[in-house]
């Protein structure tokens, strides 16, 4: 079986900025570079729609009427001679129907424990992929075997270069100002509450040991504007109480690599933590599933098992623990800092590079493809 014989339909819920979508974008790019035909089908568009179309692959946006989507997918499969479907999260049920109808193998990547639709999936030739150890354990408990393949990071895009002060210039603050970036998707209720708790902790950090610290909140809530506006209201309130606009709300950004490079520390979870470490930036990992802390080469593998707080955590976020880790980030020895951040990037590349992830997925594809459908 050659790569040119594989024709994939990649199915998604939407094309907004998020961990699943960004991973799928990097994966699609790498698959195309390997000589594989990829077609994208998404229930809705979003702000990285153009990023997908720029890859040169067909991109289809589904009908607003869910009842029409199966027929749409059927026609796309026949038009592009699709011989394998790869689905992600909420698109799985539709993918299951389409794969069953046309007797195609189905690969289902499970990105979180928040979608439990397995009772609605009936296609026998389905292979499950889990993106973290907690998700694999969760699937195991349901009697569903899966292959653990992490989400991939494009190491060529996320790297350290010399534009590290551009974000501080943009914010109008001196280059020696300590700058913390908090990055997350804010539509999720737990992530919204976590961001709110983080914001309310910032004045205490300034009061204790970083009096000139600034903070940038990066992320949006495309499906829940109310939550995003509540974050902005809280930031305005805190800035007013402190007599200085030291917390900046930047909203969603597509240039995250520049955001990471321009900060002194990134607070985030999952993919955000990995991308920031690839850019050789210090990371404090915290997510909706729990707090992990300041990531070093010594605790990197443990943090991986927790998906950096996105799927499991060591503790609950608290002002005291977070302030302690912030102190370690900014008051640690500079020579060991350089060694650690370079080692972190090396660890990310060894375990999460998009090239490695793509090769692992290709093995799964080939294991489940019938030679008869390659013609």
UniProtKB/TrEMBL annotation:
<dbReference type="InterPro" id="IPR050194">
    <property type="entry name" value="Glycosyltransferase_grp1"/>
</dbReference>
<feature type="domain" description="Glycosyltransferase subfamily 4-like N-terminal">
    <location>
        <begin position="17"/>
        <end position="156"/>
    </location>
</feature>
<dbReference type="Pfam" id="PF00534">
    <property type="entry name" value="Glycos_transf_1"/>
</dbReference>
<dbReference type="InterPro" id="IPR028098">
    <property type="entry name" value="Glyco_trans_4-like_N"/>
</dbReference>
<dbReference type="InterPro" id="IPR001296">
    <property type="entry name" value="Glyco_trans_1"/>
</dbReference>
<protein>
    <submittedName>
        <fullName>Glycosyltransferase involved in cell wall biosynthesis</fullName>
    </submittedName>
</protein>
<dbReference type="Pfam" id="PF13439">
    <property type="entry name" value="Glyco_transf_4"/>
</dbReference>
<feature type="domain" description="Glycosyl transferase family 1">
    <location>
        <begin position="165"/>
        <end position="298"/>
    </location>
</feature>
<dbReference type="GO" id="GO:0016758">
    <property type="term" value="F:hexosyltransferase activity"/>
</dbReference>
């Amino acid at each position: 079986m050659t790569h040119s014989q594989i024709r994939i339909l990649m199915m998604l819920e939407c094309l907004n900025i998020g961990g699943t979508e960004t991973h799928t974008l990097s994966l699609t790019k790498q698959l195309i570079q390997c000589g594989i035909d990829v077609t994208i089908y998404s229930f809705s568009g979003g702000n990285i729609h153009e990023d997908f179309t720029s890859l040169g692959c067909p991109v289809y946006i589904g009908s607003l009427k869910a009842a029409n989507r199966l027929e749409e997918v059927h026609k796309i499969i026949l038009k592009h001679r699709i011989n394998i479907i790869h689905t992600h999260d909420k698109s799985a049920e539709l993918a299951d129907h389409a794969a069953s109808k046309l007797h195609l193998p189905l690969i289902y990547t499970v990105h979180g424990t928040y979608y439990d639709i397995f009772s609605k999936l009936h296609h026998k030739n389905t292979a499950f992929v889990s993106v973290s150890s907690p998700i694999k354990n969760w699937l195991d408990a349901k009697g569903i075997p899966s292959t653990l393949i992490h989400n991939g990071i494009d190491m060529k895009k996320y790297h350290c270069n010399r534009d590290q002060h551009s974000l501080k210039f943009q914010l109008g603050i001196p280059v020696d100002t300590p700058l913390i970036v908090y990055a997350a998707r804010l539509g999720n209720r737990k992530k919204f509450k976590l961001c709110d708790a983080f914001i309310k902790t910032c004045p205490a950090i300034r009061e204790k040991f970083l009096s000139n610290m600034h903070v940038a909140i990066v992320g949006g809530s495309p499906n829940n504007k109310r939550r995003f506006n509540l974050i902005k209201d809280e930031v305005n309130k805190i800035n007013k109480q402190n007599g200085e606009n030291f917390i900046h709300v930047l909203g969603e950004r597509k240039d995250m690599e520049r955001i990471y490079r321009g900060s002194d520390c990134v607070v985030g979870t999952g993919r955000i933590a990995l991308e920031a470490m690839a850019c050789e930036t210090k990371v404090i990992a915290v997510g909706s599933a729990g707090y992990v802390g300041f990531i070093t080469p010594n605790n990197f593998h443990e943090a991986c098992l927790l998906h950096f707080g996105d799927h499991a955590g060591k503790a609950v976020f608290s002002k005291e623990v977070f302030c302690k880790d912030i102190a370690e980030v900014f008051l640690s020895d500079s020579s060991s800092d350089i060694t650690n951040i370079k080692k972190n990037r090396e660890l990310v590349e060894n375990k999460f590079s998009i090239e490695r992830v793509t090769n692992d997925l290709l093995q799964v594809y080939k294991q489940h493809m019938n030679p008869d459908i390659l013609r």
